[in-house]
Amino acid sequence: MDIQIEKGQSVVTIRLYDAALLGDVPFLLHLLKEDPLILERCIIEKSSNIKQSPLHVAVAMGHLEFVVEILRREPKLDEMIDNLKGSSPLHIASAKGHLQIIETLIGAKPHMCFARDQEGRTPIFVAAVSGQIDALDSFIGQTLMQRRGGPMTVKLYYICVSYITS
């Protein structure tokens, strides 16, 4: 995975992205002792020169324990949209089919199932077009499908993907 960090990033921030890439929770905890505001800084810095949050990176790499720890410490990161494709961490998990991460992210912020990326796609749609049938099952299994069109939309995606992949 190519992490895009631009000029002017602090060494501690770069080390945080290294920890996210490796899923190194003990190193994350060490960095948080060194700089308790490092995750807040990522939110502030992201608006100017970081393309993805450390949560996006950990989700893409499938590091569940790192995802859980970072959400426990800074839940706002779950709602951050990256500067690459306008994707939330849930979009990325849906595309990759990281089921436990999908369930963790939905559990933290159920409304993010309806967030749209730059192309107008929801995480449910991303799972469908990526052929992630098990991910669709995760969305169906959640009680968040109370929104208009929720369960029927997911079931329709599921039927389409099942047809295409069979």
Automatic annotation (TrEMBL):
InterPro entries: Ankyrin_rpt, Ankyrin_rpt-contain_sf
Pfam family, one: Ank_2
ANK repeat windows: 85-106
Species of the source: Chenopodium quinoa
A GO cellular component annotation in the UniProt record: plasma membrane
Domain of life: Eukaryota
Presence of the UniProt keyword Coiled coil in the record: no
Keywords linked to the UniProt accession: ANK repeat, Repeat
Phylogenetic classification of the source organism: Eukaryota, Viridiplantae, Streptophyta, Embryophyta, Tracheophyta
Record's protein name: Uncharacterized protein
